Amino acid sequence: MSLERQVIDTATGEVKSRGYLGENQNFVMLFRNEISSIVNLQKEDAKAGVLFMFLLEHMDRENALIVSIETISELLEWSRPTVCRKIKFLKEKNFITTARTGNSSIYFVNANIAWSTYGNKKEYAKFKASVLISKSEQEYRIKSTKFKQIDLLDVLEEEEN
What we know:
Layout: E1 3-8, E2 15-21, E3 29-30, H1 35-44, H2 46-58, E4 64-67, H3 69-76, H4 80-92, E5 96-101, E6 104-109, E7 114-115, E8 130-132, H5 152-160
Parallel strand pairs: 4-8
Antiparallel strand pairs: 1-2, 3-7, 4-6, 5-6
Helix pairs in contact: 1-2, 2-4, 3-4
C-alpha cells in the first residue's frame, strides 16, 4: 500500500503537487514503552548495548541479520568470547532471538522493541535477512583462472543500489 502526499495551497485549497511516498527506507523505530529497557540495557551492560545498536544498524527491514561471530568480532574489535557473552546476555534479556545457518547465525531483533518497516508487517520478521560477511570470511572466492574473481561485498553493495 502506497501513501499519497499532496501539497495544498491553504488559501485556495488548490492541490499544487501530488506524489506517492515509498516505504520508509532508512529508519529504525523504537517503541516508546521499550526505551527504558534500552536505557537499562546500557546501564547493566554497555557492551551488550553496543552490540544491540550494531544489530539495529545492520538488520534488514524484517529485523533480521545473518552474520558470524567472527564478523561481529572483527567489526567491533572484540574477542570472540566477549561477542558470545554479549549475545547470550541479549538473548536472556529478550532483546534478540537467534537461529543457525551454516557457520553463521541469524539474529532477530525483538520487534516489540524496535522495527524498521510498517508495524503491520511485524509478523514477517523471520522470513528475510541481511547478510553481513567480513573480507576474512570470503575464503571461498573463485581462484580458478577460468573465472573472474569476485568480491561478495562488492556484489552485495551493487544489489543494494
